[in-house]
């Protein structure tokens, strides 16, 4: 997939976003969501210190959601684990 990254991180072209929702029982209306943000050319400098994004590597960030903490990098068995190459 080719990505035009000339405006990446700006309102005209934000990161590629993959949204996930964890609510197996269906009890959390519109909740339990988190998102993975992929910046093919790296995150713009102005976002590097954002408390909203957790850096997984220089191009992949985890964004908080209603069930913040479901995705984890600490290998806890009750959570999905993200491993970034």
Termini Cα gap: 18 Å
Strands side by side in the biggest sheet: 1-2-4-3
Gross morphology is globular
Q: Report the average pLDDT across residues.
A: 60
Determine the oligomeric state from the structure: single chain
Give Rg in angstroms.
Answer: 14 Å
Q: How many alpha or pi helices? A: 0
Extract low-pLDDT stretches. Answer: 66-72
**Helix-strand topology string:** EEEEEE
Q: Could you explain the architecture of this structure?
A:
The strands form two sheets. The protein has a four-stranded antiparallel beta sheet, with no helix packed on it. Strands 5-6 form a two-stranded parallel sheet. It is an all-beta fold and 85 residues long. It has a domain of 57 residues. About 8% of the residues have low confidence. 0% of the residues lie in helices and 28% in strands.
Topology summary:
Elements (H helix, E strand, L loop, with lengths): L15 E6 L11 E6 L15 E4 L2 E4 L7 E2 L7 E2 L4
Parallel strand pairs: 5-6
Antiparallel strand pairs: 1-2, 2-4, 3-4
At a glance:
This protein is mostly beta strands. It is 0% helix and 28% strand.
Please give a handful of descriptors for the protein shown.
85 residues; mainly beta; 4-stranded antiparallel β-sheet
């Amino acid at each position: 997939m080719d990505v035009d990254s000339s405006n990446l991180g700006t309102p005209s072209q934000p990161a590629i976003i993959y949204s996930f929702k964890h609510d197996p029982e269906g009890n959390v209306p519109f909740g339990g969501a988190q998102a993975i943000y992929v910046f093919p050319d790296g995150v713009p400098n102005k976002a590097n210190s954002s408390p909203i994004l957790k850096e997984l590597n220089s191009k992949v960030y985890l964004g908080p959601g209603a069930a913040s903490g479901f995705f984890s990098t600490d290998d806890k068995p009750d959570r999905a684990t993200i491993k970034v190459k």
